[in-house]
Amino acid sequence: MSIPIDIRRGWWVRLAVRVDGPETRSRHTRADGGGSTMQRSWKRRLLAALALAALLGTVPVPAAAAGYKVISNGVVVSDVQAEMVDGQLMTAVGPFAESLGYKASYDSKSKMITVYKSGYWLTMWIGTHLAFQNDREVWSPVKPYIKNGQAMVPAWWLAVRLGADVSYANGTLTVSNGYKAPQPATGVNPNPRPDSPFADPTYVFPFPQGATYSAYADTMGASRYWDGQTFGHEGTDIPAPHGTPIVAVASGTIVRYGWNTLGGYRITIELDDHPGYYFYYAHLSGYAPGLKLGSHVKKGQLLGYVGSTGEGPEGTSGKFIDHLHFGIYDSNWKPINSYPLLKYWEGNKVKL
């Protein structure tokens, strides 16, 4: 290994020492002045630096990327473009997540990366440490970035977040969660009509044509935490930019309106077609003009806008990412899984 050190008069000398964790600590020494005393001082410092470098061995840098490999569930994962950055092995999120049985998407407009499967989703953004796991804030040790058109994320950190066992040795990251890739099916509709009275082909998706939103997963029953209590999630979360329009999936009457401690600004609509059944829209940032308790709304009508309100007194927002929570309830207020219905309606969007 070579460490570039310029000891010319007036230059800074920097020795970067890697310690455990994502951060790098540095020591700076000023090569100032002259004379034999200073020269002897620099000789001592240079010898110490070279000795320390020999003890440390190689310092990982992106230029050594070709030597890194990822093995997931016994299979070498190709196209991960693995490289070391700030002590973290970075990989392309798509092939890495898929090797563990998850899906991944990237929205270039919002720079948002989403990793998801049934009951789980993790959201990150290019250029920031901030991330959210099932609505809860977490922290990425290295900021994701784009390389050759691929979103690069810290592999060890992501694997642990996805529940996999991880080890690293001799340039190889090994991850395992028991996932086996299924054989591709043929002639299967990816979003078949659910066996549900709400699988009405005339119902519409809650976002209109042209709206930007991220991939979403079946989060029904997933664990949620608030105010010291754990409870099961009762709907589907669809991440979308703040202010994205939300429309009525079906026609009905507003029976609940205003602030809810958990749901924030929300609207509950009793369906015209199925009296005693309700569609629930939560975490809104605002309502469409003219709506109130008892108002009748038509399918495709604007209801409000995506936000992050809830989990506190009125006006609380920002405790989770902007998204629409969509739920379905029967006459006893028992939740019904909305995910398969949303996938079915997704091809039917209104134009505002």
Automatic annotation (TrEMBL):
Pfam families: Cu_amine_oxidN1, Peptidase_M23. This is Peptidase M23 domain-containing protein. It comes from Symbiobacterium thermophilum. PANTHER family: MUREIN HYDROLASE ACTIVATOR ENVC, PEPTIDASE-RELATED. Residues 233-337 form the M23ase beta-sheet core domain. It comes from the Bacteria. Residues 73-176 form the Copper amine oxidase-like N-terminal domain. GO terms for molecular function: metalloendopeptidase activity.
